[in-house]
Amino acid sequence: MRGWHRKTGRARLPRGEGPWAWLSAGSVSLSLLLLALLLGLLASRGLGHFWPGDVALVTLQDGRQLAGREVREQPLPDGSGHERLYRTGNRDLDGEIWDWVALAAIREVSHPPELLVLERRRWSEFIGRLVALEPEAGPRLEGEAAWSALTDRLAELEAGREAIRELRERTILPLVRRLEREGKSAEATRALAAAEARVAELRASLGGARLVLESVSGERLIQSLDEIVRARRPNAMSGLDKLVAWGERVWRFLSEGPRVGNVEDGVWPAIFGTILMVLLMSVVVTPFGVLAAVYLNEVAHQGRLTRLVRIGVRNLAGVPSIVYGVFGLGVFVYGIGGRLDQWFFEASLPSPTFGTGGLLWASLTLALLTLPVVIVATEEGLARIPHRQREGALALGATRLEMLSRVVLPMAMPAMLTGMILAVARAAGEVAPLMLVGVAKLAPQVPLDGDFPYLHLERKFMHLGYHIFDAAFHGNDVQAALPIAYGTALLLVLVILVLNLTAIFLRHHLRSRHGTLSSY
Fold first, then answer.
1. What is the rounded distance in angstroms from the CA atom of residue 299 to the CA atom of residue 411?
2. Domain range enclosing 368
3. Structure confidence by residue, pLDDT tens digits, 165-201
4. The domain spanning residue 401 has which CATH number?
5. For 51-70, how does the pLDDT look when each residue is reduced to its tens digit (9 = 90+)?
6. Helix extents (H) in 207-238
7. Cβ–Cβ < 8 Å for 99, 66
């Protein structure tokens, strides 16, 4: 207990505590602080990207004007002042969407409410003014009438695009796969032709209208309306409107697929692919890891060979992940997958079905990668169970199998879940082996649908870790990709956190139920 020193009158630490306890507490506090700073950085850089910031109209000392959103400031290389980076858009007019401007060269900065930001399918954003809307039939609209008509037409376009998307996903793609699997069928061919005709009809109804746009430098641009995804006037939006728009953009990021080089719209296929791959990996690695640990600790003779096997298992945990990727490519993809194609899918050769990277081979490769972690954690949990528990069960007449299944394994369940937590944390963040055994840069269709067998293990999939790598290093515009990389990294951390918290909750429940040792 904490007491007082008789001579000095100061509080003294309990016996056994000292500077090492404070050093340990300080290390834990520093780790938590660094983790909080990391999450704060990812959240501010990632989620802040979706906020519809004001668009500045910048007038320079020489009279030239530009419009864009302020990104950041930095000192000039010669130390004579600072420069500011603006995202100006209009790649099809200027060839670039970024502009560095020295602060000394700026004469005036204003925020006119009529400045328009258009998200387009091609050429990224347009920032400027709306001059007129020219519908397919009817008079030319200008000013506020053009803006009102534009918002109404974009709502109709979004409904039409959603109808086309539903037709493709629920009708056309299943019919195409059916034709590929069963060969030509008159019924399927007629249904496919009818669906494609309906898509062509919807596409024809989307086009026709045009926008007359003007940049702040005076350049005119004629833009087809069906190329416009969304339009907004950030300077005319209230704080509540911006909050609603921010929520909509975050939801699109979570629920839609990517476009424009993976730096626009969402990452839903990558979220789904990551979670599904981790779940499949867990289903595969758990029984093999537990059985191996039970054999090494409960069944095998504890001699030199067993010790060598344990050393080998621990060394496998330190093998670089890319080595497992090469192994998975050679054994799973080309070996087993190629053999399956020869046995069951000979008609589709030389186009491979299982003889190429896919969800199944990626899950098996990561299961092999994380198997040593599960074995070590489970075996350590089994070693902590007192021998009197085993002896008591055997003394009461239980067989060895009943003793293992009803006494030992339930008490070791928290240790197994600890191994699973470590395995999930490592598998969800691995990228190198996945690049060889199934991950794809762009796979907008998730490998789970209504077409039999519903879960398509042979398909390629997207992964959050690879999406970060691709967006940050393989994009044409690093500045545009960085916020997406930050947001995806935050999402990956949250996905791992949710999976781990689920396992931790189960571990706590089993620990309290079976009364296992608190040292697990």
1. 17
2. 268-514
3. 888 877 887 777 777 766 677 777 888 888 888 888 8
4. 1.10.3720.10
5. 888 999 999 998 889 999 99
6. none
7. yes
